[in-house]
Amino acid sequence: MENRLYSAKYLKSIIESHGFKFSKSLGQNFLIDGNIVKKIVRDAGITKDDYVLEVGPGVGTLTEELALNAKGVVAVEIDKSLLPILDITLKPYKNIEIVHGDILDIDIKSLIEEKMEGGPVKVVANLPYYVTTPIIARFLEEDLNVESLTIMVQKEVAQRMVSLEGSKVYGSLSVFVNFYSNPEILLTVPKSVFMPSPKIDSAVIKLNMKKDLPEVDKEQFFKVVKASFSKRRKTILNALSSYGFNLEKDDFKIALETAGIDPKSRAEELSLEEFVKISKILPPLDI
Questions:
Q1: How far apart are CA 219 and CA 145, in angstroms?
Q2: In angstroms, rounded to a whole number, what is the distance separating the alpha carbons of residues 207 and 146?
Q3: Domain that holds residue 123
Q4: Does 31 reside within a domain?
Q5: Domain count, the chain
């Protein structure tokens, strides 16, 4: 295959011939490193048995490599001006379908049912930085037949996602991601391999979805986590008791001691399992 879409020269000629202008508001940065493109697809574990849902194909750089390795690829693109370019760049591949829409608005469950035999599917994406968390949250929280997410995000966001208790960057995002998945950073990606080049480096992170989630009321659990990290410098007791819940400080102190947790601990010292314990012991929380 002579011209691959990750070739900077070829990609530039395509963009210029269509008069395409990069959108800052959509966070568009296209990969131009073939080794990284291939490594993402390889580390995502894509095989000829897999259906892949790609978010934001851009001009098809990653989509092309996915199509060469997967059974089928459905790529959701929000930018209407990229659709005619994708029609040309991905024309040789019969196992790709482009869907125009916003991944935050479309019915993902129906998409998987109708176009990917109901799944399971693997999600692969080079996510726009400004909308990373809402997209990840949607895939994690909704009842979707998704096996894994392999996604490009800001390097510091990836580090927060994989961090565990005791780390300086451990926070509510860490607990949230680890509640639903087993995350691992696959590789770091320098800003120099994008067109145009972003201001910061990126990382590819893989979230392997958990089949069995912790046995706890999710609403109660995430209320506890959010309140605990709302005031990082405070002790866990003071953070919970000052958040505005319908309980007295002594109620929280008793619950923490019952869970075997020092009330003077801080949120970043507590494991996911300890947050589960607290959530189970406390009565239903309200504000």
A1: 22
A2: 10
A3: 8-209
A4: yes
A5: 2
- Specify the residue for token string 């894509």: 46
Rounded to whole angstroms, the Cα distance separating 220 from 73 reads: 37
What's this model's pTM, rounded to 2 decimal places?
0.91
Q: Which helix (H) or strand (E) holds 219?
A: helix 218-228
Are 106 and 188 in the same domain?
yes
In a domain, 286, yes or no: no
Distance between CA atoms of residues 76 and 27, nearest Å: 15
> Domain check: are 54 and 31 in the same one?
yes
3-state secondary structure of 59: coil
Residue numbers belonging to the annotated binding site for S-adenosyl-L-methionine? 29, 31, 56, 77, 102, 126
User: For position 237, which CATH number holds?
Assistant: 1.10.8.100
Question: Binding site, residues?
Answer: 29, 31, 56, 77, 102, 126
ω into residue 196 within 30 of 0, thus cis? yes
Yes or no: say if 115 and 74 are a contact pair by the CB < 8 Å rule: yes
d(CA 80, CA 101): 9
Task: With H, G, I as helix, E, B as strand and everything else as coil, classify residue 181.
Answer: strand
Clarify whether residues 245 and 151 are in a common domain: no
Q: Are 131 and 236 found together in one domain?
A: no
User: What is the rounded distance in angstroms from the CA atom of residue 261 to the CA atom of residue 253?
Assistant: 9
3-state secondary structure of 108: helix
Q: Mean pLDDT of residues grouped by 10 in the chain (287 residues)?
A: 72 80 70 92 97 95 96 96 92 97 97 97 91 95 97 96 96 98 97 84 97 96 97 94 94 96 97 97 90
Whether residues 203 and 256 share a domain: the answer is no
